[in-house]
Amino acid sequence: MRASGPQMLTDQPVAPHGLRVRRLGIETGGEAIVFMHADCPVARSEGFATRTRVEVHAGGRRALATLFFTTNGLLDPDEVGLPNALWRQLHAGDGDVIEVRHPQPLASMSDVRVKIYGHRLEQDRLTRIVADIATGRYSDVELAGFVTAFAGQTLDVTETAALTRAMLEAGDRLDWPDELVLDKHCVGGLPANRTTPLIVAIVTAAGFTMPKTSSRAITSPAGTADAMEVMAPVNLDLAAMRRVVEREGGCVVWGGNVRLSPADDILIGVERALDVDSEVQLVASILSKKLAAGATHVLLDLPVGATAKVRSPAEAARLSAHLVAVAAEFHLSVTPVLTDGTQPVGSGIGPALEAHDVLAVLRRAPDAPADLRERAIDLSGRILDLAGGPPGRGRAQASSILNDGRALDKFMAICEAQGGFSEPSTAPLRYTISAPRSARVAAFDNRTLARIAKLAGAPRSKSAGISLHVKLGATVARGEPIFTVHAESRGELDYALAFAAANPDVIRLASL
């Protein structure tokens, strides 16, 4: 007799219900997000809620994402909407059938909570956390918890070395045949100061190896990669980077595209959104990328000033001592140099404006910013001294290489090797702020200047930013230009000018 009523099948797995894909054309800045209709049967049966972390499977590929719901006609109940980043990652096509499931529990979040409550993390905990971050298992909320947990706690050599090692192990590594591989890093916090492209050109023209991976802007109007990108491609993969270095001795590329420290690149995105820069993660970020790039000797530039990232010589000494101590755990030589951080270095603030300054120095133009030129020569000379030449001779060698055109030739060769040189653009909209009275330039508020440049559109708008017309100690007459705001749209120019008007002491003038 056939049994009546519902039956429970226990010997066959239940196949996940598929959903049709729709590309939404939304840019999320790399954040992995998926959308479903509020009446989606899969969402209801799985118990998904807004901001649930889900695992998306498509054609053998998978990705973790944060779920949001729609209640209008954007999606049908049997559809899932993908933004551009996730669409590319999954190689999806409109109408493809994919599956959305609960991911495995994120066990390493318990380790993050340990840190949030103020405890030190051992190597195994940090390795678990960083491995999960590097594979995209953390949501932005969870990443923010990790970043802020470190931001509020004091430096510890053992813990910072463990974080550095975890970040290093999560990515690729480069090795070079040279016994001496040179590098330079600036801790940032000072607008402009675009010495890196100049230093790479000088040091490699001297015959040394300098594979430079650089960051995009975190809290500034431009990072080195942003400024370099307006002159040459920087999104090179590991193989392309190696070819450039083998051909020319050096490069200036974006570190985020070569996976030398992929967890760090993810964390930088969160730090940018929070506008914070944790010292522990700063140290781990610097050292993991230098070690992954194969560096043996690193010059560390620490600009010191009241409105720079490093406020005092005592703070610089503490941070540099921590960097040196952690680097020693990996047998990496780090030499700190304290530099003047009281005012921007160069005339331009913003990717294209900083690139114009770099080229002016390389081309020995009469109006090239002298302070950028001198700082680049000084730092290059110190790096050449690290290479083992006669002590103190490096600066003269660096000056000669810049003055006779070898640095320009090498820079152009590096640009061509990276994909071709382009002249930086100029912004279509400009407005100049003039001195309201005759006065002496007494101080710069670096942070507020950076804010104005960002409101003008930098670094997203490459030609946006600020060009400075004065330096500390200069005297100006009433009506003379102090700085010019550059923008690519009227709205951004208006935002920047309104903020500048509300902060008239961004460049403080003192009576004569």
Q: Average pLDDT value?
A: 91
Into how many domains do the coordinates divide? 3
CATH architectural designation of the largest domain? 3-Layer(aba) Sandwich
The helix count comes to: 18
| Main beta sheet | 6 strands, mixed, barrel
> How far is it from the N-terminal to the C-terminal residue, by CA?
108 Å
**Count of DSSP strands:** 18
Structural shape:
globular
Helical residues, percent: 25-40%
Q: What strand order characterises the main sheet?
A: 1-5-2-4-3-6
Q: CATH-wise, what's the superfamily of the largest domain?
A: Nucleoside phosphorylase/phosphoribosyltransferase catalytic domain
Quick rundown:
One of its GO terms (molecular function) is thymidine phosphorylase activity. By secondary structure, this protein is of the alpha/beta class. It has 3 domains: about 20-100, Barwin-like endoglucanases; about 180-255 and about 290-420, 3-Layer(aba) Sandwich (Pyrimidine Nucleoside Phosphorylase, Chain A, domain 2); about 430-510, Pyrimidine nucleoside phosphorylase-like, C-terminal domain (Aldehyde Oxidoreductase, domain 3).
